């Protein structure tokens, strides 16, 4: 799926957009699964908006925004289990992480038309810190994404900074790191943006009449151990490539 030149680009910049990882039929299957999860959630007591709170937007604007961010979507629909273990995904991840690749977690991020919430600039590290920083996010695009509907923006090379001090609910000072400071990463449905969990990233509000549906999967080297027991979920640790050199007994999260 990727060349040595692309691997080198990732090492230098901390992100890589890979075109056409999923075909149109696979994308449509995931769109349907995403819409069905939202529908089932709406009929349950677990429905919510995951809009980030904080001072990065005026309060009256913040309260109008919506973000659907349900975690562990591969527990809800087999379409996502197939996606996160897809041969094309494994081909890329084995070049970026190494021969052994393990799933940490998955989630859906859906910005509805006209009111899809922003993500202030941040690193993912504070949420699930690991010792060797092998963690990579794979953002699977289910819709064409651009600045109008809130595509991801990254600050190239910031993965080399190491963990940075965050404010609020784990985001960076929005005056020092506005979303406009990032490099936009527009993408087409079926493309996947891979980025290290230390790479600063964020996205703007969806101001368009189109949805922006993404599936985000976090992957790691199984020998890269967490430094804090946070963000643990049942079934964590599914092997996508290779094997787990550390033998242990797996049990459900407490």
UniProtKB/TrEMBL annotation:
Keywords, comma-separated and alphabetical: Dioxygenase, Oxidoreductase
Oxidoreductase listed as a keyword: yes
Family matches, as SUPFAM superfamilies: Clavaminate synthase-like (SSF51197)
Signal peptide: none
Gene Ontology terms for molecular function: dioxygenase activity
Pfam families, alphabetized: PhyH
Xref: PANTHER family: ECTOINE DIOXYGENASE, PHYTANOYL-COA DIOXYGENASE DOMAIN CONTAINING 1
Protein name stated in the entry: Phytanoyl-CoA dioxygenase family protein
Organism: Paenibacillus ehimensis
Lineage, highest ranks first: Bacteria, Bacillati, Bacillota, Bacilli, Bacillales
